[in-house]
């Protein structure tokens, strides 16, 4: 009985294509290299490497507050990851999420302060939608510049991020600053924020929205004609044109959707975790989205795994930083190394060639054996 | 060192990155001073074998031995250093440079820091004279005909010291007249002690030119034979494994009204140069109109205009009464355009999408494939499974990525998609180039079936056999003009077509007028 089921697993493993197996191997090796480097750095820099490593690897399970921190980190990762997956699926290297998140957060905060401070449930929903609208307008500028004038989307969105930051800083310091403070606004209304789900933690209702956004992104990209069209454009624009799709139109739509999700990400983050608007620099959640999309191969289906993975070690590094005095930036090195290896197309290509040859060789032997049997 | 050790490939096995085993334990050897043909169907693995000999690809298994010495050909540079030269089907020349500059590219003679134009011309002249090539070293490549460009490629290899010259289907781009000229020169090279590996599936040419032939079938070597001991039909049988009837049976056409109409059509390239000059023709529903011509005589701009890829030009171009140039590709397809493009990998299919996704890419708007906001996956699967079966696509299932299929199967997926649409007008550009006999045969039969069920079909093909077999009416294009029109293809010979394709002969305006037939 047990023999039979194990055979089933072996068979199933073999039925996974060589490409997929190689992808998994590549991912595993990239993670191993990243972790290896992280461990070496910890051992070299920590006063007490053993406890530092323990925190790095096990922190989320050591206390409820650490675990809750991990969930908090997951929320923006899922949302910005979904936004980037949709834009990258159309092969649009739009890097403008930082700007949408920043101003989306600011507008949601202002909405919570001035527009709907005392309106529970509907208030936060309104503020988040407003954030999404802001994200749409921000992304629309570079996206349309590309559509109309062929402005390089990478450069224009990077610039756009700084425009958003400095416009936001102007409003923060010169228009909406609480005079009693150095760098933040008046407090957001008590009913304008997102509800805490588990008392005693900071896990907020944004988690539901984040999961919903990931599901939305997956269904959109893989279950609708719009998504198929977007992916067709992303995979081969010449082919997309040939079958009658509007290549530039679909590129535009994918960025609009990404921009809306970006704005909503900022709003959720702001309303879920902050009492006042106090961001004086770009948040980094937009870059996280790019990392997430790379880990998930632009397929939202894999975002939860990628988010849990990153959030887990980020929490570990965070705890380690104040418990064992190891710099938290270590986790950026760790993530950067992994992204580099995952992005390197030729990484382990020699192994791939061996794997694909071995597979073809095996099939050849099976064929020959079958032929031999027939002859006999 | 025995004769056969001059060049030996032993037990070569090559698996491409998409998992296709292109060479399976292939053995091949050739002597000094012979013309050795490699025959096989398209996709049999001839080109793959030669790419490994030229260092473009590396074998997974096996040895390459040159003059008794095992070599590792890790790049074309290494292959050239070992005396191997190759002329590809697609020439690797810089159009804006002169013949002498192209030939000495990378091995430029210099005086001080300056390129020595005179020396380069001398080098070119001396090699060209030595082998009886009559070439002007100062001519620009872009002004040369295909046949002369090919000579430049051969000279390029000779200047670099090639003793073994690989020619990959050299006659595919040549007219019959240019072909016989090439053969004279190849024989001269053989006399001078060069070894020529001649890849071809034109058996008549193999028979008349080559000393020995190695036949490859589905990645295996079938054997090496003296050409004088085997007949054309022997070779063909060895290539395919069974006897095949290469002609597709076809009844008389029963054409309806003109569906595609081109009247006084003129088209221009990006530089404003006229590439299609005042041509008028029609394609009626229920007939196949063939366009013959040496590549680059206006076929590409014409196809691009008909399929909506490029606009501009003057004159009438309409499909089913609609002005093609005021419509997007999307609208053209809605009105019944189907297009089998020449370039199947970059235009006709998306290798990274699944077979299902490729097959319905042009049909995503169909009601049948949508259920509310979502795609109707079960129906899509059902239909693609049916098409995979109907069109005999060899694959692991509809979810397999198209890039993992062989060329012939990719083409079947593409053809299935195009012919399962409305397909009132089907534009076929080299529909069977580079695919195996079985797939070729099935695609040609499909096209005849589509004709019989009322589609208007425009066929552009460099394969004259295909053109003569499938076309009901035939047009010859030369330098963007119609130079010949045959209302009845059954009496036309390849030889005769060749004269028109070369521009040697030209019909009168009255004869050509017939191409524009409204009924």
Structure description:
The complex is a heterodimer of chains A (about 375) and B (about 525). Chain A starts with a helix and ends with a helix. Chain A has a domain at about 80-295. The model of chain A has no long low-confidence stretch (mean pLDDT about 90). Chain A is an all-alpha fold and about 375 residues long. Chain A is globular. Chain A has 15 helices and no strands. Chain B has 2 domains: about 5-240, Rossmann fold (3-Layer(aba) Sandwich), CATH 3.40.50.300; about 260-515, 3-Layer(aba) Sandwich (Rossmann fold). Helix content of chain B is about 30%, strand content about 25%. In chain B, strands 6-9-10-3-11-12 form a 6-stranded mixed β-sheet, with helices on both faces. A 6-stranded mixed β-sheet of chain B has the order 18-21-22-15-23-24, with helices on both faces. The model of chain B has no long low-confidence stretch (mean pLDDT about 90). The chains are: A mainly alpha (about 375), B alpha/beta (about 525).
Summarize the structure.
The complex is a heterodimer of chains A (376) and B (519). Chain A is mostly helical.
